[in-house]
Amino acid sequence: KAGVTQTPRYLIKTRGQQVTLSCSPISGHRSVSWYQQTPGQGLQFLFEYFSETQRNKGNFPGRFSGRQFSNSRSEMNVSTLELGDSALYLCASSLEPGADYGYTFGSGTRLTVV
Amino acid sequence: GESVGLHLPTLSVQEGDNSIINCAYSNSASDYFIWYKQESGKGPQFIIDIRSNMDKRQGQRVTVLLNKTVKHLSLQIAATQPGDSAVYFCAENGDTDKLIFGTGTRLQVFP
To answer: Is B26 on the interface with A (CB under 8 A)?
Structure first.
């Protein structure tokens, strides 16, 4: 079956712009989590969505937001981009919410802010 | 690789040898642990998991050992192959209901 699909794979944006990233989970998976990966900070949890509701949130500013649709697909948005937002953004899906189940990750969206 | 840290600890092993990657986890409340493998340009890939009611679990060529007393996790890879070259992360569920990842270890396999 298809894995977790993230689009786009690569993105270049200018400071101050906003960006939307998309994630389609594995069919049947209802929970979607987002992580930011940078060389300095490693994998940092952004948020988790389940049944179209944000269930958990990491320590990121309000410029980072997300949502989940009724088909479990999720989007995340970053407004007023800063250079430090350059990172690999990873989406992971799981059957159920929470951290007691294995996550399946997508290949990520590489965001570069210039 | 594009998605891994520049200053990760590195383990270099010869092809065919066994590899042991270690991880110290932070939260004594964690009761679920996962090892992930991340190759350049890809997202983390699930390798093996273990729950706290076990101290050892085996998969195909991989074994995870859990020592709750010292909060230590290890991943053993038997007969390491060039395709095993990647960054390996341990993750724990903590008490915040989200997976918390370690900093990662780069495994380099040389012929």
So the answer is: no
Task: Tell me how far apart the alpha carbons of residues B73 and B55 are, in angstroms, rounded to a whole number.
Answer: 9
Over residues A66-91, the pLDDT tens digits come to 999 999 999 999 999 999 999 999 99
Inform me whether the pLDDT recorded for A110 exceeds 80: yes
* pLDDT given for residue B97 in this prediction: 77
Alpha helices in B10-87 (DSSP H): none
Tell me how close the Cα of B72 comes to any Cα of chain A, in angstroms: 19
Coil vs helix vs strand at A74: strand
Closest CA to A101 of B23, B53, B98, B102: B98
For residue B4, what are the CA distances in angstroms to A34, B8, B55? 17, 8, 29
Residue A97: CB partners within 8 Å, gap ≥ 6? A30, A31, A48, A50, A55, A56, B97
Cβ-defined contact of B5 to A98 (cutoff 8 Å): no
| CA atoms within 13 A of residue B63's CA, in its CB half-sphere | 9
List, for residues B4-34, the tens digit of each pLDDT value: 445 689 999 999 999 999 999 988 889 999 9
Reduced to 3 states (helix: H, G, I; strand: E, B; else coil), residue B73 is: strand
- Judged by CB atoms closer than 8 Å, whether chains meet at B99 and A45 is answered as yes
> Phi and psi at residue B27, in whole multiples of 5°?
-115, 120
Residue B111 forms contact with A (CB below 8 Å): no
**CB pairs < 8 Å spanning A and B:** 64
Contact between chains at A107 and B100 (C-beta distance less than 8 A): no
